[in-house]
Write a structure and sequence with these properties.
The chain has 263 residues and is an alpha/beta fold. Helix content is 43%, strand content 14%. The protein is built from eight helices and nine strands. The chain has helices at residues 3-17, 50-59, 65-81, 85-103, 173-183, 202-223, 228-232, 247-261, and strands at residues 23-25, 45-49, 115-117, 120-124, 129-133, 145-148, 153-157, 190-193, 199-200. Strands 4-5-6-7-8-9 form a six-stranded mixed sheet, covered by helices on one side. The chain has a three-stranded parallel sheet with strand order 1-2-3. Strand 6 (145-148) and strand 7 form a beta hairpin. Helix 6 crosses helix 8 (247-261). The chain is globular. The two termini are 35 Å apart. The model has no long low-confidence stretch (mean pLDDT 93).
């Protein structure tokens, strides 16, 4: 999310490998996955799909700093007026992220990927191989993940999050379902998520269930002419109700209503 966070990531990687990172993969264009790119210069080559590179370039994060400051002020007002512990945790997390971005605003720079691919890029190492794969876009317009076949492990970025509600405001829930179905056909046991603790391939199925459940809850409300606000008052079943990023379900429901209205 910030150069400060990226510096900690770089330090951890160097402690593990004994050398600077050769490659930095931008799985998708969201700020919390690309805003620290600059820290890995000049040694690293930055890699993404063709479309993710374009989305990073078009997002113009640096032009949004004034908007981030305004959003942060509003979040602080919301924090002071809510007693819901789940909402308070989410707001505190978002406020912390935003303040970290603003604190680094004078040194932030946009660094674009210099190596792009469409569907598959294989790294042939001396000890192992790794496959960088993209099955299209679900969480965003383009999502990539790294698969280590010998280890039966995948770094899924935000295509699979653990204990957090997934977001498809800039994506496509139906396409996401299809992507995860293909992921489940791979020989994967361990998943490193974009958010949350280390999980297993079972967590990919949970994300699919979340996407299906949210639509099944909201569709009857929409079809009888109900409002988005009514849908947002519906209670998610467990385990989804306990997942972090609770505001995400409201954003997702708004996205679903807009899609259905445009059909």
């Amino acid at each position: 999310m910030t150069p400060q966070a990226a510096q900690a990531l770089r330090k951890a990687a160097e402690q593990l490998t004994g050398r600077p990172a050769s490659y930095v993969i931008n799985s998708h264009y969201h700020a919390d996955h690309v805003m620290g790119n600059q820290v890995f210069l000049p040694e690293a080559v930055f890699v993404s799909t063709h479309r993710t590179r374009r989305l990073i370039e078009e997002s113009k994060f640096l032009d949004a700093l004034a908007e981030i400051a305004s959003e942060t002020a509003q979040m602080e007002k919301d924090l002071s007026s809510t007693e819901d512990e789940g909402k308070r945790r989410d707001l505190l997390s978002q406020i912390g992220d935003n303040k970290a971005i603003l604190a680094s605003s004078s040194t932030l720079r946009q660094v674009l990927p210099t190596l792009t691919f469409e569907e598959k890029l294989t790294f042939h190492g001396s000890r192992r191989s790794a496959e960088l794969l993209s099955y299209g876009g679900g969480h965003t317009g383009s999502d990539a993940f790294l698969y280590l076949p010998a280890e039966r492990l995948a770094l899924m970025a935000d295509l699979v999050v653990v204990g957090h509600q997934p977001m498809f405001v800039q994506g496509d829930p139906q396409a996401w379902q299809g992507i995860l179905e293909r992921v489940k056909q791979l020989d994967i046991q361990t998943i490193i998520p974009g958010h949350g603790p280390v999980g297993t391939i079972e967590d990919a199925g949970l994300i699919q269930r979340y996407l299906t459940t949210l639509e099944e809850l909201a569709r009857p409300v929409f079809e009888r002419g109900g409002t988005l606000e009514e849908a947002q008052q519906l209670a998610l079943p467990e385990p989804f109700a306990s997942w972090e990023f609770r505001n995400t379900s409201n954003w997702n429901l708004e996205t679903l209503f807009k899609r259905w209205q445009n059909l």
